[in-house]
Amino acid sequence: MWDNIKEFASEFFVTGDPLIYGADVSIALTLIAVVTALTYFKKWTWLWKDWLTTVDHKKIGIMYVIASLLMLFRGGVDALLMRTQLAVPDAEFLSPEHYNQIFTTHGVIMILFMAMPLMFGLFNLVIPLQIGARDVAFPFLNSLSFWLFFFGAMLFNVSFVIGGSPDAGWLSYPPLSGKDFSPGVGQDFYIWGIQISGIGSLMTGINFIVTILKMRAPGMKLMKMPMFTWSVLSSCLTIILAFPILTITLALLFIDRYLGGHFFTLDSGGNPMMYINLIWMWGHPEVYIVILPAFGIFSEIVATFSKKRLFGYKSMVFALMAISITSFFTWAHHFFTMGTGANVNAFFAVTTMIIAIPTGVKVFNWLFTMYRGRLSFPTPMLWMLGFIPCFVVGGMTGVMLSVAPADFQFHNSYFLIAHFHQVLIGGVAFGYFAGLYYWWPKVFGFKLDEKLGKWAFWFWNIGFYVCFMPQYVLGLMGMTRRVSTYGWDKGWYDLNLVSTIGGFLMGIGFIFQVWQILHSIKFMKKAPADPWDGRTLEWSIPSPAPVYNFATIPRAEGKDWYWEEKQRIAQGLPPSPRPKLEPIHMPKNSGIPFIMSAFWFVAGFGLVFDWLWMAIPGFIGIVVCMLAHSFNYKTDYYIPVDEIKRTEAAAAGRGV
């Protein structure tokens, strides 16, 4: 019996690599520390009532941000491990198998489990406040969306220590992702981790479309919405069109692996090119899904710190929506070399070039907004300024890649790696960092330390260029993607070493950001409600916002209503009248989203290992949770006027 247990454990757990053992120890110690702290300080009830069961969009946003920063750490460590392996020729730091697993998990984590939740976190933290709403349209669905993302991410990440990580690339092309070449369970962790998380992403897209279209403050017409709200709307419209493609594609891949289907294998008439078309029909809009909100963030920041109305409001709206639509007509530029034909290549080359036009419009609008503005340069504005040259270079190299004949040289090379990271780090990461710095005082009631923030900014930016500029040259020299080692004769040593140094500089930048947060919490300096002299509604309420957001719903008549209101008051005019206080209707917390998502984890884990004894109870639990919610009629409550007055008076007394 003992021998059977040892045999099962050796197959169930990942063994044989010191890095994995180190991860096992660190995970165990972290879990022990968390459980010990919660028990010692008697915080289990607090954790359940205030966080695990919350439907408050602000707390859900905070949990999204925390989860994304943890994933940034995990994905960043993967990146540094890869760069360490490639720093010198003929390195043996990582085995080829381990390297394949790391670059696969790095891509998935950074796109789906870091960028997406950080984006959704900012959606939750800002959008209801910016449009004058008290919550999102569907608070219960919002909580369920987060927990589905979280448990999907955990299911994917557990493959690191149980069963083995996927190793077929971050998009898992067949036949590499089929049973013949990936017989282990790593690919099944990939499928179900992303499937469960993707359901949550789709529900978030639906939730915020309804929130923006139906819950805006009186007077806030569509063409008077803040630009960040417009960017979220365009991103969510893209989500609800793109993510069903991903869901179906992964379902078909699971059928291939689990039931012996042949959708994507050459046996019995299947075709792997069908998978590649489908995955990029989702994958390229996905790039714009995560970049569009960053454009909205930069629009808010540049107007605030230029003390000017955003230049070209209507053209910015048109640009955002044009990108959202056009993003669905560019996917084939990812495989110009696949033999689709000259006419197809020409069509997708042209559409890829066209999408650069609305992108360029936004850059010029930001520059014209800054022109003759009264500029100031706190940390959010620094990230904005760092973004512009970085994204311009990324856009230019994207146009180079869109030229089909030239792409035969660039394709599958490190030139493409550099371009991809130029856009996603210089655009997405820089944008969301800027948004976090900008709205941090509104969320937590205190600012982040500016000095440490500037150190983080410069390490990130200098490290970025040191890391990725050499990779353009390496790509032109012939270095291809996914190589785990190379010889001294290639002549790639110097540039790879420089690139690795740049990667570690960015890692130091991340350490400064963690230090900045911890330092700011320790030496907390409370921020006023409007620390940046902002222009939009979120700055008109206390910091942090009360549970109900607005004591009375404002009437927002202009694009920058709050800014205009402040100008009227400064001129001695009376403030706009507000309706009298009334009891506020709010949703109750619910533990069902957390429990249902946990059952999804159980069902997914069971399907990964083909344990129907686990998967079937998991799905039964999901159905039971749905029925329990359907028959729960006590889903709301009212905040009385006296409590609202006390909350507002306390906020006024604190000067927030």
UniProtKB/TrEMBL annotation:
Listed under catalytic activity are: 2 a quinol + O2 = 2 a quinone + 2 H2O
Gene Ontology CC entries for this record: plasma membrane
The cofactors required by this protein are:
ferriheme a; Cu cation
Tell me the route in metabolism or biology where this protein functions: Energy metabolism; oxidative phosphorylation
Its transmembrane ranges are: 20-41, 62-82, 102-127, 139-162, 189-210, 230-255, 275-298, 310-332, 344-368, 380-404, 416-440, 452-477, 497-518, 590-609, 615-633
Quote any Pfam family the record assigns: COX1
Which keywords appear in this protein's UniProt record, sorted alphabetically?
Cell membrane, Copper, Electron transport, Heme, Hydrogen ion transport, Ion transport, Iron, Membrane, Metal-binding, Respiratory chain, Transmembrane, Transmembrane helix, Transport
Tell me where in this chain the Cytochrome oxidase subunit I profile domain is found: 40-557
PROSITE patterns in alphabetical order: COX1
From the UniProt record, give one GO term of the biological process aspect. aerobic respiration
Keyword Plastid attributed: no
The record's annotation in InterPro entries points to: Cyt_c_oxase-like_su1_dom, Cyt_c_oxase-like_su1_sf, Cyt_C_Oxase_1
| Compartment(s) where it occurs, according to its Swiss-Prot or TrEMBL record | Cell membrane
- Give the SUPFAM superfamilies listed for this entry: Cytochrome c oxidase subunit I-like (SSF81442)
Q: Read off the Gene3D superfamilies from this record.
A: Cytochrome c oxidase-like, subunit I domain
A GO MF term: metal ion binding
- What is the membrane topology here? Multi-pass membrane protein
Keyword Lyase present in the record's keywords: the answer is no
The family note in this entry says: Belongs to the heme-copper respiratory oxidase family.
Protein name in UniProt: Quinol oxidase polypeptide I
Source species of the chain: Cohnella herbarum
UniProt lineage:
Bacteria, Bacillati, Bacillota, Bacilli, Bacillales
